[in-house]
Amino acid sequence: MLAEQWLANTREIMSRIEETQMENINKASRIMADTMNATNTPRMVTVCDSLRPIQLPPRAVPKIPAKSAPASGASGTASKVDAERA
After folding, report:
1. Whole-angstrom distance, CA of residue 61 vs CA of residue 82
2. Looking at the predicted structure, is the pLDDT value of residue 73 above 70?
3. What is the pLDDT of residue 64?
4. What is the DSSP letter of 64?
5. What CA–CA distance (Å, rounded) separates 6 from 63?
6. pLDDT tens digits, one per residue of 35-56
7. Which CA distances in Å does 2 have to 6, 9, 11, 60, 74?
C-alpha cells in the first residue's frame, strides 16, 4: 500500500517535470553533447599503460618458452606462490 502511494506520487512529480521543464532538459542535453563532442578523448591504452607498469620477479618468468604442455593437472600458469618463491 505504501509502495503504491510512493510510486503514484513519484509518477505525478515526474509528469510535472516533463510538462514544465522539457525545453530546459533538451537545452541541457544539447550543451552536454556538444561539450563531449568538442573534447578530445585520450587513448585509453596510453592512459592506463603509464599508470600500471608490470614488473615481474626475474626468476618468475622462464628465459625460454615451454617446449611441451604442462604435466597432468598443472595449469601451465604461474601462481602467486610461484612468484613469491622466485
Report:
1. 10
2. no
3. 75
4. S
5. 66
6. 888 877 666 556 555 555 567 7
7. 6, 11, 14, 61, 58
Q: Are the C-beta atoms of 60 and 86 separated by less than 8 Å?
A: yes
* Residue 76: all three cell numbers together: 601451465
Alpha helices in 1-86 (DSSP H): 2-38, 44-51, 80-85
In this structure, are residues 57 and 86 in contact, taking their beta carbons and an 8 Å threshold?
Answer: yes
Residue boundaries of the structural domains of the chain: 7-37
How far is Cα 11 from Cα 5, in angstroms, rounded to an integer?
10
**Model-level pTM?**
0.40
Average pLDDT on 4-20 reads 96
Owner of C-alpha cell 510512493 = 6
pLDDT of residue 24: 96
